[in-house]
Amino acid sequence: MSELKIDTRLWSSKARNLSPYVPGEQPQHDNLCKLNTNENPFPPSPKVGEAIAKVLGQQADDLRLYPAPDSDDLREVLAQLHGLDINQVFVGNGSDEVLAFVFASFFLKERPLLAPDISYSFYPVYAQTFGIELVQIALEDDFSIDPDAYRQPCSGIIIANPNAPTGLLLSLDDIRKLAGEHSNSVIVIDEAYIDFAEIDEGNSAASVSAVSLINEFDNILVTQTFSKSRSLAGLRVGMAFGNVSLIEALTRMKNSFNSYPLDKLAQAGATASVLDVEYFEQTRQQVKDLRKALTEGLNALDYKVLPSHANFVFARPKDGNASAVASVLREQGIIVRHFDKPRVNEYLRITIGTAEQNRRLLKALSAL
Question: Per-residue pLDDT tens for 169-183?
Answer without folding.
Answer: 999 999 999 999 999
